[in-house]
Amino acid sequence: MRAIAVLLASILLAGCCGIFGEEAPPPALNLTITEALDPNVEVFVMDKYEKNVTSIDSIEYFYPVQKGLAEGTEYGFRIKGPTFMPVNEKFVAKRPPQIYRELGVQQYHGYQPGRYDIELVEIQGNRGFVRAKTIFTVYTRESRADDAAGRIRANCSGFIGAAPYETRDGNAGRLYDCARDLAVAARDPDVCLGLGKFFADNQSAFLVGDCRTDYAVATGNASLCDESSMPKGRGFCKAMVASDPGECMRIECDFSCYMESIETQQDLCLQWYGIAKGNNTVCLMVRNEEYRNICSGLVLNDESVCQRIQDPQARESCVNHARNTPRG
User: Fold this and answer.
1) Is 80 helix (H, G, I), strand (E, B) or coil?
2) CB under 8 Å to 239, separation ≥6 — which residues?
3) pLDDT at 2 exceeding the cut of 80
4) pLDDT of 142 above 50
């Protein structure tokens, strides 16, 4: 499926000033630590959305969480890797584990890229016992894009031009298709990040988002839809995964509603879905007349509908599409 370029580049949630924001981290606790793993105890990592993750962008916050310690047990975390963080704060286990209540104000953030061992340390007086540990990776989006671009070069070399592509015509479209198919075959949506290395800056963010939406649809992985920076993008992705345009009407306002009302975003989501699915019934659900005419004109290949479009550029594109695309 060739998706239309609808997903905006993600807005990076930049952190402030290192691992603990503007404040220096607390001093290390005076502990003698030994390893005494307990198979009934686990440590895992959550992101700011309280989703379990095994890796995260270096600009994002992450939260280690314990499972299995007896209620009332004191514990802390030790993080070993390119950035080292000793046990420097005590928490008290609750049932069930409550991420924000247990972690208090401590936020893990700003770690150097690389592989880390995150250890859950039970604290007994001045002694610490490592009860569980897990491997965690911190990356930068740029490093992942470079790796992905290398994989695309190795598998899609016949479609790569000498200069960044400005449009999806010809080999550029085939390169997109090849990268998307590679991502799906490898079950790795990060392959899509490499597309940004082959297209002009004004195209790359949209195509990376398109590719990851295509991946979500092909694999049924709706969790990727939350990466979109605006409700309309998230709704469109979820609608495509679920084959349900009702997802467009379930989107909720966020900061972007200061720029574009939720009604407009719902209409655009429905428009994109109608065009992508070739479904004029969905087009007719669009409340805004201009967006509805664009949707119906493209889906029906009907020049008379295209002529109702007020925006000259959109009208011309719709008319050209109707003239050059056979009906049926």
Assistant:
1) strand
2) 245, 246, 247, 248, 269, 273
3) no
4) yes
Q: Long-range pairs for 167-173 at CB < 8 Å and ≥24 separation?
A: 167/203, 168/203, 168/207, 172/198, 172/199, 173/2
Q: Which residue has the higher pLDDT, 229 or 18?
A: 229
Name the residue ranges covered by the structural domains of the chain: 32-138, 140-229, 232-237+244-328
Query: What is the phi-psi region of residue 300: left when phi exceeds 0, alpha when psi lies from -120 to 50, beta otherwise?
Result: alpha
With a cut of 60, say whether residue 105 has pLDDT above it: no
Nearest to residue 252, comparing CAs of 241, 240, 238? Answer: 238
Alpha carbons 209 and 5: distance in angstroms, whole number: 8
Reported CATH class of domain 32-138:
mainly beta
Cα distance between residue 6 and residue 239, in whole Å: 13
pLDDT at residue 6 above 80? no
Share of the chain above pLDDT 90, in %: 56
C-beta contacts of 263-266 below 8 A and 24+ residues apart: 263/287, 264/288, 265/230, 265/231, 265/232, 265/235, 266/232, 266/235
For residue range 270-283, what is the model confidence (pLDDT) as tens digits?
Answer: 999 999 999 999 99
Phi, psi of 49 (to 5 degrees): -90, 5
Stretch (H or E) spanning 253: none
